[in-house]
Design a protein that fits this description.
The structure is a single chain. The chain is an alpha/beta fold. It folds into 2 domains: about 140 residues, 3-Layer(aba) Sandwich (Rossmann fold), CATH 3.40.50; about 120 residues, Rossmann fold, CATH 3.40.50.
């Protein structure tokens, strides 16, 4: 079945990287449509956060600023859309005024993949809402793009962080749609001292995909997310596949360790799924 990709763009300075990643993902998966989406902050949301009174003047100012941001993003999208290959891929633009979590949940459930930038130090509340909704409310794989790296292609050398559980398996199933053109695949499996040695996941063999297994000690001396990223770079990987974990409904506070590290430090495209 043809794939639909949702590209969520928020900052004009980073939008081209998100869109380039969406275009690369479309080539890898045979997607037929890329929906570009900008989310405008409702003025009332600023009042809720600051406990200030929303005056008519302030409301007009906020709406004007949000409209100007959305217009800049549309200009970037339009310039990018004419470069998309193959030309059979349909690109459409949308901007919506509403809470980011609500919009991403609604639009994300209609897509096959969601592409957005990784949060960084000065990430807004809107962006945090967007990525958490994408990860935990849509039941879709997300491709998280580094915000401070130039656009680049990926999918030739793929690293898969493997553990035997349902979330990692779901991430792997999503990644299978990206792996047919990969030149090399590495499986990174963590093991604690005394635990049985892991093996290559059977799902790869069943799908006729060859991969190399790398066993990484889990010692507690380093954050394991950091270990994964270091090994991926040592292998020359251009994309990392991981499962996304949360230990509590208040997911922004109690994310799994690897998930939290990827959300704050990943410096290559990461395909994640909860």
């Amino acid at each position: 079945m043809p794939n639909v990709i949702l590209a969520v763009v928020e900052l004009p300075d980073v939008a081209s990287r998100v869109l380039a990643a969406a275009g690369c993902l479309a080539q890898l998966t045979g997607a037929v449509r890329i929906n570009g989406l900008a989310i405008r902050l409702p003025p009332i949301e600023t009042v809720i956060r600051t406990e200030e009174i929303l005056s008519e003047k302030a409301e007009r100012r906020i709406r004007t600023e949000e409209r100007q941001r959305a217009d800049r993003l549309k200009g970037i999208f339009d310039a990018w859309a004419v470069t998309v290959t193959p030309q059979t891929v349909v690109t459409t633009w949308h901007d919506v005024e509403d809470r980011a979590d609500k919009v991403v949940s609604e639009w994300g459930r209609r897509a096959d993949f969601i592409v957005l930038k990784r949060p960084w130090q000065h990430t807004s509340e809107t962006e945090r809402q967007a990525i958490h909704a994408a990860l935990f409310e849509t039941d879709r794989p997300i491709l998280m793009v580094p915000p401070d790296r130039p656009p680049t292609s990926f999918g030739k050398r793929v690293a898969i962080a493997w553990r035997q559980d349902s979330r990692t398996l779901k991430a792997m199933l999503a990644a299978l749609r990206c792996l047919q053109g990969a030149e090399h695949i590495d499986v990174l499996a963590g093991v604690r001292n005394g635990a049985p040695q892991p093996r290559l996941p059977e799902i790869l063999e069943e799908h006729g995909i060859k991969a190399d297994l790398h066993v990484l000690p889990v010692t507690g001396d380093r954050v394991f997310g950091e270990v994964l990223l270091t090994k991926a770079h040592a292998l020359g990987s251009d994309m990392l596949v991981v499962g996304a974990f949360a230990r509590h409904p208040i997911r922004s506070l109690l994310l799994g360790g690897v998930t939290r590290h990827m959300l704050t430090h990943a410096d290559l495209p990461v395909l994640m799924r909860h």
